[in-house]
Amino acid sequence: MLHSQKGGPGKTTLSCNIAHELAKRGKKTVLIDLDVAQPTLQHIFNISRTDIKITINDILLGNGILSENNISSTSVTNLSIITASEKIDYGEGLLSLLKSIHEHSYFILHEMMKTLQRMGYQYVVLDCAPGYRIESVHAATIADARIFVLRPSTFSFEGAKEMLQDIYKKLFYQSLNFFIFNQIPPELKDKSLKILHKWKEELERETGIDPIFLGFFNLSYEIIENCIHGEYFFPRKHSLYNQLSCMVDNVTQNIDLLKQDEIISSSQRRINLETANISTKGE
Ligand SMILES: Nc1ncnc2c1ncn2[C@@H]1O[C@H](COP(=O)(O)OP(=O)(O)O)[C@@H](O)[C@H]1O
Ligand SMILES: [Mg+2]
Fold first, then answer.
1. Digit-coded pLDDT (tens) for 111-168
2. Ligand 2 centre from 114 Cα, in Å?
3. Is ligand 1 within 6 A of the CB of residue 34?
4. Is the pTM of this model over 0.90?
5. E strands within the chain?
6. Owning domain of residue 119
7. Structural domain count of the chain
8. CATH number at residue 202
9. Which ligand 1 atom sits closest to the C-alpha of 7?
10. Angle in degrees, CA 118, 120, 123, rounded to 5
11. Ligand 1 close to Cβ of residue 215 (< 6 A)
């Protein structure tokens, strides 16, 4: 899941590129727009409203069951998408929608992950709303990996520190925590670069969650210009693509290790239980 404390650091851009890269690597992937107040993915993938059979709003509100027949495919092989609804015709509008989503989102998201796994999806990329929105916090609770995105500003840094210490530290400890600084102007002055490195070290050391640093990603005018043409994936020859590809390696390899540990510790638990049974029988 991709999260931030403030809006605009690049969660959606990175989510799309991560999901695109995973799909290109042959992994069956689904990208989900969990930012129900500001839906975006439908436009990025050029999916017309009439082609959408189920949205994350339907799922979160318990109005539809996800299946191979209603999940939206994209023009990218192996990549499916669950969009958020552009049109909020629920109760009294957005506020009433958000309130209803809050009540059950943890269990619903949990169930949705199991359904997607049964459907053969290997990766689920959750593009979350910023801040303390409850469905973002619930997504952080169930995710194997949380990627926190920051901008190079004092408020982004202070906000991140607060959020990682306040919320992430209290969540399920076995999830992996990552962070990334995005939109770094190229050719920074030495003194600014030093501050960024100091922030990086402070986040690594002082948040109590041992987050893994994924890199400083440059602000790119080419990427901004591509958005004018509706092109959101980093071109293969762009330096941001190389950074993204390394980031995907880092996150997926760490998830694989986490899964191996889980298998080992659950078989360890089984062995312990069996030993306990034997000794009880013996008595
Ligand atoms: N590395 C980057 N270089 C240039 N523009 C970027 C970069 N990352 C994100 N952007 C731009 O910043 C804006 C906000 O990005 P977005 O992914 O929508 O952020 P969020 O989802 O966190 O609100 C978008 O216009 C996006 O194109
Ligand atoms: Mg976004």
1. 999 999 999 999 999 999 999 988 899 999 999 999 999 999 999 999 999 999 988 9
2. 25
3. no
4. yes
5. 2-3, 29-34, 72-73, 79-82, 123-128, 145-150, 176-184, 212-218
6. 2-282
7. 1
8. 3.40.50.300
9. 23
10. 105
11. no
